[in-house]
């Protein structure tokens, strides 16, 4: 996917000619499929910026969705039918956003220098707690993954999460056309709450309780492994946030010093305490939202969030497929779908089993657990949300 168009601000919005009803269900046989005002507002926004959505589908907030909100067929859809066409100019990704928000772009460029400096220091001073390292490596031995990028700190991938988060905040603060869409981003799950609440990666009490609660939902996942994964993810967020927000560099140093202090306390049989935590709730919330919505746009490191695509849930039995064109991103139906059915994109690569490691990171990244039946199998269970 080659993204060369000007960003969305270059598109002249046009007046919507049709709107969805709020008083009657879109699908008469399914009374619960009635869009909310927010659902209708999203479709109106898409139409203003030339995102072409088929009248056969609609975003609907309903308990009928696997995630409480999703895209449904409101009439029969035929195999091969075009569901949506999104102009590249509407895609929210760093190159597009940098043109709209030059001040944010310049500030993020400075963060790369901080990143390089801190990475050099981290080569000499590992920041991950020893017991987490040992637990995670032991877990890898049980997994089909011989190398786990999530453990080996894929720094570049996590930096784009924060880049997009900063650009999204800039869009909201400046009332950019993207802001109305960004305001519709939702997430509510244990990992999101940990990030938003500013829980420290070494807050053992909170992490133990959260991991146990998540284990009750997915018994196949070990609570200690969940706790380790949660801690790793929170530690990585704190580290990368210190690159993007200069005032958080001191916090990273405090975290490192606290790890050393806790190591001494453990030796002397004192109880470990969580370190002091600087927390930027606005950045944390947006980081978590972006993490659950972004996707790789090509094989060259372009990552972003795509309007409408980000509202579609995912399944191991998808009925939609994405096709990249020169000027648009298109979504097609891959089989006949009856009215009233939810539409899904591909969840994992075809033929790739969902092992314990993938299940753990799926749970944490997207917020919706992988069912027990999906782990180490390729079953038909539906999972995850980005809506």
TrEMBL record:
InterPro entries from the UniProt entry: SET_dom, SET_dom_sf, SETD3_SETD6_MTase
Region (Disordered): 1-21
A GO molecular-function annotation: protein-lysine N-methyltransferase activity
Family annotation (PANTHER family): N-LYSINE METHYLTRANSFERASE SETD6, UNCHARACTERIZED PUTATIVE METHYLTRANSFERASE
Alphabetized Pfam families for the sequence: SET
Protein name from the UniProt record: SET domain-containing protein
Domain SET intervals: 55-348
GO cellular component, one term: nucleus
Biased composition (Low complexity): 9-21
Superkingdom of the organism of origin: Eukaryota
């Amino acid at each position: 996917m080659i993204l060369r168009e000007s960003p969305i601000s270059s598109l002249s919005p046009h007046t919507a000619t049709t709107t969805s009803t709020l008083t009657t269900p879109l699908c008469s046989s399914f009374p619960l499929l009635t869009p909310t005002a927010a659902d209708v507002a999203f479709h109106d926004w898409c139409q203003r910026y030339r995102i072409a959505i088929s009248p056969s589908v609609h975003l609907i907030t309903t308990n009928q969705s696997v995630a409480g909100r999703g895209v449904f067929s409101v009439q029969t859809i035929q195999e091969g039918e075009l569901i949506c066409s999104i102009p590249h100019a509407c895609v929210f990704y760093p190159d597009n956003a940098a043109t709209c928000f030059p001040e944010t772009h310049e500030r993020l460029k400075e963060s790369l220098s901080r990143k390089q400096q801190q990475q050099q220091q981290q080569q000499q001073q590992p920041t991950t707690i020893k017991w987490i390292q040992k637990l995670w490596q032991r877990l890898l031995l049980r997994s089909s993954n011989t190398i786990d990028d999530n453990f080996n700190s894929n720094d570049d991938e996590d930096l784009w999460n924060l880049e997009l988060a900063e650009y999204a905040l800039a869009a909201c603060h400046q009332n950019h056309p993207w802001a109305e869409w960004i305001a519709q981003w939702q997430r509510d799950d244990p990992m999101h709450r940990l990030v938003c609440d500013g829980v420290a990666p070494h807050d053992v009490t909170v992490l133990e309780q959260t991991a146990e609660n998540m284990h009750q939902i997915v018994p196949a996942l070990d609570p200690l492994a969940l706790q380790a994964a949660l801690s790793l993810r929170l530690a990585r967020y704190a580290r990368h946030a210190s690159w993007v927000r200069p005032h958080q560099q001191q916090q990273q140093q405090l975290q490192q010093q606290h790890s050393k202090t806790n190591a001494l306390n453990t030796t002397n049989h004192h109880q470990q305490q969580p370190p002091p935590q600087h927390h930027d709730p606005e950045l944390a919330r947006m980081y978590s939202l972006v993490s659950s919505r972004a996707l790789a746009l090509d094989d060259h490191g372009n990552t972003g969030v795509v309007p409408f695509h980000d509202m579609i849930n995912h399944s191991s039995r998808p009925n939609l497929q994405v096709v990249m064109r020169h000027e648009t991103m298109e979504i097609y139906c891959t089989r006949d779908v009856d009215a009233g059915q939810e539409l899904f994109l591909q969840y994992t690569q075809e033929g790739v089993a969902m092992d314990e490691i993938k299940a753990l990171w799926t749970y944490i990244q997207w917020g919706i657990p992988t069912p027990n039946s999906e782990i180490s199998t390729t079953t038909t269970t539906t999972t995850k949300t980005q809506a």
